[in-house]
Amino acid sequence: MLRFTAMLTVSLLFAGVLVAQPNPSNLYLFDLAKENDQSYALTKPTFLTPVNPGGYNNQPQFASSELLLFSSGAISDSFQTDIYALNLAQNTITKITETAESEYSPTLMPDYFYFSAVRVEADPDQTQRLWQFPLDRLNNGKPVFPNIRNIGYHYWISRYKVLLYIVNSPNLLIIADTRDGSWEKVSSDVGRCFKRLPDGRVAFIQKESEDLWMLCALNTQDFTATGIVPVLAGVEDFVVLNDGSFLMGRGSRMYHFNPKAPEKGWVEIADLRDYGINAITRISTNGNGRLVLVSE
């Protein structure tokens, strides 16, 4: 039986209020090494969330090579999440927010002093806005865009501009400017994942139909998008590696796509079911040989 290393020195408890109950989810860390142009190896598995093993642990994002932000909460009738920072070098975890609201999708902001997160507010409408919080926790944060609501996900493309996924029917992708609160529509029917490509464009998934989801590259200057490759059926989470190739997870398996060899398509590189990983969703890399994934 394969085993994980369990990690962390814990000094905090989880509490909660709010929203519908999600599926339990956990975070797993792997070393990621390139073997050749078509293959990567995942080694040294580590279970990162023993402090909340039956709870919600999701939306991991590296703020630095060794600092991982994620959203976490105990699953109960009063479900509520806060943001935590996990220091991989020191094996410690710190609670960054402690509110009656729920915070999701923590992301380091371009100034490196703040992180942003989607907050589900404790009002009757459960308003979803983008907030910013200081990493040093010296204040309680504030809305980035007071008048833009229904924000589901976001991705910073510059110091002042951010892509916002607006929950709607269909969902919308807009680009908003923090200097004046203005925004422009980019697309609709997109996925929730956005990652920077080596050439400066942003990779995202365009849901062209129920049966065809296309991984695309977005030029953030003129909003033109170029198709790269259809994604695995039903999968909308991915990462971009330093060489411009992609990883996706589906079920217990990880897949790799190299745009320099498109004829090979998505190539399976690992099956992680022996680690108890059977439903891979979100993935994050630190760009320096480490990968964190979520399994529900």
Offer a few descriptive terms:
0% helix; Neuraminidase; 296 residues; single chain; disordered N terminus; five-stranded mixed β-sheet; four-stranded antiparallel β-sheet; mainly beta
- Low-confidence stretches are 1-19
CATH topology: Neuraminidase
CATH superfamily: TolB, C-terminal domain
Order of strands side by side in the largest beta sheet?
1-3-2-25-24
Q: What integer value in Å does the Rg equal?
A: 18 Å
Q: How many individual β-strands?
A: 25
Into which percentage range does the β-strand content fall?
over 45%
Order of helices and strands: EEEEEEEEEEEEEEEEEEEEEEEEE
Q: What would you say the CATH architecture is? A: 6 Propeller
Shape: globular
Q: What value does the average pLDDT take?
A: 92
Termini gap: 20 Å
Number of domains: 1
Please give the share of residues in helix: under 10%
Structural class: mainly beta
Count the DSSP helices. Answer: 0
For the sheet with most strands, the description reads:
5 strands, mixed
Oligomeric state of the chains present here: single chain
- Look at the structure and give the CATH class: Mainly Beta
